[in-house]
């Protein structure tokens, strides 16, 4: 039976790691030392092998409350019991230090009473190798060592160590702290260091938000989405992952369980748009460098996805774990989609590089090595124009001539033409225009005269929400009757309640989809705004955004019947969709942006 639910977790992070904390202050997911490493806490996927990091009251929980400290990625969980109340403040330190960002593999928890004298038990039992390794515990002077990892892991605390080692309850008479570290341990004073790091981290996030350029339209949602998107960037390389989790199913027992802890090239255009729209260029520059490192190693094809360190091989294997809710197998590590042919990636790269040349805020140093890259990528569009691929949705057994692929061929060639003008290269400009015309011809092969809709692929009668981008990317004139008819046809076939949208309705490798895909709903909202249906766009924006969880985080998929959240979480694609849709609406409303 399908379980109606929303993910009852908040996420903290510092651009080196993320941790997922539920509404009872239990850490459900934390991978160290990288986003794509084994979990050290992973009971999200297995309550026996996943380890535990919790703060449990001895009295029965009456209610809980969870929220972020305003304009930060600092998470607070309040727990109310019959004997007293307490709160847990969780954060990953991040602040400027010595002209660099200090972002250690360190999770700090402050546990303090709110009312009465609550009795709690702190449990810290990390694991390794996806639950196959249980480290040996060793007690130090004011810390517990966990032996068996590549680097030292410690829990440093001012709680009596015997209580933590023995998992024994104690009365919470005042604030106590736990500092979990991987690598360099905490040797300084616990309380003073934790409070100093808290103050500096709060100041960093609030200053980051202050430098964000957003309009008055749903500022709270935009701020939270921006903060969440930020911590999905692995700052060491600039890569931005699709999600911090693996194998959270697209719907219950669907077997559509994928590892999303990698960087998808298909997300590039939308993600960079989102950062550009909020005026944050540090993240954009880091992402440009990552893309350059990825593409310079490729002499032939670009893969659909790469690891956060730009590695190509991402072998997909199934792990002996129970799965989400104890019954969603398989649990997959790695993602075989890296082997797929997905030809829209070339247009994604070119459209992503365009701001380097079109936006005067970027200096020449970012343009030094890209002409050869532009020429190579443009040629790949020409070479793959007639080739079938797996499409945006990475169909594993459905190759086709997909409209979305041709759209990015068209957009990529358009970008290359503009960059050719910067290079003052007439030959490249002429080549780009010819490729753009070829791509437009291929797009038109997907048009269905009877319905007035551009179909998923040439010769197909299936509709696909990705074709909404024909409007938002200006292939179709938003003011034209053709655009309006195309949009209405897609609404009729793919829209669910409240503006939620299915990617497609046809059967694929795993059957027919049962849940809607949130990014598609935000694409629809953008398309509405483009064609002038702004009031409807605002109404649906409100409705679609209400499917966030209690702290404003969006999943990948939503069950339109009961509002359940499904898929990997939080999904950067969904938050990017929200940000870009809000930007599109605010421009239509002519709302002022401010710094």
Question: Uncertain regions: pLDDT < 50 for 5+ in a row?
Answer: none
N-to-C CA distance = 49 Å
CATH topology of the largest domain: Glycosyltransferase
Estimated helix fraction: 25-40%
> What is the helix tally?
15
Largest sheet: 8 strands, antiparallel
CATH architecture of the largest domain: Alpha/alpha barrel
Strand content: 15-25%
**Mean pLDDT, nearest integer?**
92
E-strand count: 28
Domain GH15-like: 218-583
Keywords: Hydrolase
InterPro entries: 6-hairpin_glycosidase_sf, 6hp_glycosidase-like_sf, GH15-like, Trehalase-like_N
Domain Trehalase-like N-terminal: 10-156
What is this structure's SSE topology?
Layout (H helix, E strand, L loop, with lengths): L8 E5 L4 E5 L4 E5 L7 E3 L10 E6 L3 E8 L6 E7 L2 E8 L3 E3 L2 E3 L3 E11 L2 E7 L10 E4 L3 E5 L5 E5 L3 H5 L4 E2 L4 E7 L7 H21 L8 H13 L1 E2 L4 E2 L22 E2 L3 H10 L3 H16 L8 E2 L10 E3 L11 E3 L10 H10 L1 H4 L12 H14 L18 H21 L2 H19 L2 E2 L4 E2 L14 H4 L8 H14 L21 E2 H13 L3 H12 L11 E2 L6 E2 L5 H18 L6
Antiparallel strand pairs: 1-2, 2-3, 3-4, 5-12, 6-7, 7-8, 8-11, 9-10, 11-17, 12-16, 13-14, 14-15, 15-17, 18-19, 20-21, 22-23, 24-25, 26-27, 27-28
Helix pairs in contact: 3-15, 4-6, 4-15, 6-8, 6-9, 8-9, 9-10, 13-14, 13-15, 14-15
3D architecture notes:
The longest helix has 21 residues, at 190-210. This protein has 595 residues and is α+β, with helices and mostly antiparallel strands. It contains 15 helices and 28 strands. The protein folds into 2 domains: 9-208, Distorted Sandwich (Beta-galactosidase, Chain A, domain 5); 212-589, Glycosyltransferase (Alpha/alpha barrel), CATH 1.50.10. The relative contact order is 0.11.
């Amino acid at each position: 039976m399908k379980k109606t639910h929303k993910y009852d977790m908040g996420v903290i992070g510092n651009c080196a790691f993320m941790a997922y904390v539920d509404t009872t202050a239990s850490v459900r997911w934390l991978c160290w030392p990288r986003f794509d490493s084994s979990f050290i806490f992973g009971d999200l996927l297995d309550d026996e092998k996943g380890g535990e990091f919790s703060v449990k009251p001895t009295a029965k929980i009456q209610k809980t409350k969870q929220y972020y400290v305003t304009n930060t990625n600092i998470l607070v969980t309040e727990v109310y019991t019959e004997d007293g109340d307490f709160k847990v403040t969780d954060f990953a330190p991040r602040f400027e230090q010595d002209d660099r960002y200090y972002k250690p593999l360190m999770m700090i928890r402050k546990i303090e009473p709110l009312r009465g004298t609550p009795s709690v038990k702190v449990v810290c039992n990390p694991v390794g190798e996806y639950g196959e390794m249980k480290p040996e515990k060793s007690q130090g002077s004011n810390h517990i060592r966990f032996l068996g990892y590549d680097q030292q892991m410690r829990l440093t605390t001012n709680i009596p160590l015997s209580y933590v080692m023995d998992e024994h309850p104690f009365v919470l008479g005042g604030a106590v702290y736990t500092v979990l570290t991987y690598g360099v341990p905490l040797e300084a004073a616990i309380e003073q260091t934790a409070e100093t790091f808290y103050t500096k981290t709060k100041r960093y996030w609030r200053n980051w938000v202050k430098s964000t350029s957003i309009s008055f339209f749903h500022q709270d949602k935009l701020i939270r989405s921006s903060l969440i998107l930020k911590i999905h960037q692995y700052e060491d390389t600039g890569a931005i992952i699709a999600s911090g989790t693996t194998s959270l199913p697209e719907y219950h027992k669907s077997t559509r369980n994928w590892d999303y802890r990698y960087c998808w090239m298909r997300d590039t255009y939308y993600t960079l748009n989102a950062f550009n729209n909020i005026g944050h260029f540090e993240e954009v520059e880091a992402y440009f460098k990552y893309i350059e490192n990825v593409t310079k190693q490729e002499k032939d094809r670009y893969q659909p996805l790469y690891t956060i360190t730009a590695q190509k091989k991402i072998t997909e294997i199934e792990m002996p774990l129970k799965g989400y809710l104890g019954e969603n197998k398989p649990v997959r590590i790695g993602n075989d989609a890296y082997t797929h042919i997905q030809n829209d990636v070339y247009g994604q790269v070119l459209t992503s590089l365009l701001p380097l040349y079109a936006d005067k805020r970027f200096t020449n140093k970012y343009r030094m090595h890209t002409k050869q890259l532009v020429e190579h990528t443009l040629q790949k569009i020409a070479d793959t124009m007639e080739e079938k691929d797996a499409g945006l949705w990475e169909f594993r057994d459905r190759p086709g001539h997909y409209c979305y692929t041709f759209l990015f061929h068209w957009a990529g060639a358009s970008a290359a033409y503009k960059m050719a003008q910067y290079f003052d290269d007439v030959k490249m400009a002429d080549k780009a225009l010819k490729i753009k015309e070829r791509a437009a011809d291929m797009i038109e092969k997907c048009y269905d005269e009877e319905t007035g809709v551009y179909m998923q692929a040439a010769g197909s009668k299936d509709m696909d929400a990705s074709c909404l981008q024909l409007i938002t990317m200006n292939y179709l004139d938003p003011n034209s009757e053709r655009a309006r008819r195309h949009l209405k046809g897609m609404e009729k076939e793919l829209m669910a309640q409240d503006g939620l949208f299915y990617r497609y309705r046809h059967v694929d490798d795993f059957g027919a989809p049962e849940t809607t895909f949130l990014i598609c709903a935000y694409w629809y909202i953008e398309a509405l705004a483009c064609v002038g249906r702004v009031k409807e766009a605002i109404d649906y924006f409100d409705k679609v955004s209400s499917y966030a969880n209690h702290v404003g985080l969006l999943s990948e998929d939503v069950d339109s019947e009961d509002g359940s959240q499904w898929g990997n979480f939080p999904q950067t694609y969904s938050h990017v969709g929200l940000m870009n849709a809000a930007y599109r609406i605010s421009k239509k409303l002519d709302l002022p942006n401010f710094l």
